[in-house]
Amino acid sequence: MHHIAGHAVMCWMLDCSISTFLCCGLSLTLVRQQCHLFAVMAPRKGKEKKEEQVISLGPQVAEGENVFGVCHIFASFNDTFVHVTDLSGKETICRVTGGMKVKADRDESSPYAAMLAAQDVAQRCKELGITALHIKLRATGGNRTKTPGPGAQSALRALARSGMKIGRIGLD
C-alpha cells in the first residue's frame, strides 16, 4: 500500500482490463497500467488527528488574581450546610451537607461530616476557577439558639486547609 496525496493506493498484479467493485461503501475502479492494477481509496476517518479545544468553566482572569465566591455555612445541631454562591448570592455554585457525607443520622452535624462537605465544596470551586471565599456563618437563630453547631469551625478550617483563600468572615 502506498500513500499519495493523503489517499491510500493499492497495487495488484492481475490479468484484467477495467473492473469496478464495492469496498467499504466506496465504489473503486481498477485501471490496468502495464500489468499493474491500482485502486485509490479514501482516507480512513478514524486516523485523523482532532484538535482538542480547551474549555474553561470559570471566569477569565490573569495569573495570580483571586476569584471570589461567597460560602454560606449553616451549622445547626442537626446538620451542617456548606453552600457556595457567586458574589451576588443568586447563583449557586456548589452545595454539600454533612448528611450527604455520612450514613448515620446522628453524625450529620458532626465536625467530621462538616469537614468532608467543605473539602468537596473546595474541590468543586477549584475546578470552576474560584480561588477565594468570603464566609457567611449562621446558626439556627430565631427563638432557638444563636450559637453555631459543632460543624462550623471544622468546615471553616477544612476550607482554609484545602487551599482556598479566606476573605471576610461575617455572622449572618
Architecture overview:
This protein has 172 residues and is of the alpha+beta class. It contains two helices and ten strands; from the N terminus they run E-E-E-E-E-E-E-E-H-E-H-E. It has a five-stranded antiparallel sheet, with no helix packed on it. It is elongated and about 75 Å long. The termini are far apart. Residues 21-26 and 31-35 have low confidence and may be disordered.
Please give the structural blueprint.
Blueprint: E1 2-4, E2 7-12, E3 18-23, E4 26-33, E5 36-41, E6 68-75, E7 80-85, E8 92-97, H1 111-128, E9 132-138, H2 151-161, E10 165-171
Parallel strand pairs: 6-9, 9-10
Antiparallel strand pairs: 1-2, 2-5, 3-4, 4-5, 6-7, 7-8
Brief descriptors of the model:
elongated; five-stranded antiparallel β-sheet; 10 strands; 172 residues; alpha+beta; five-stranded mixed β-sheet; Small ribosomal subunit protein uS11; 2 helices
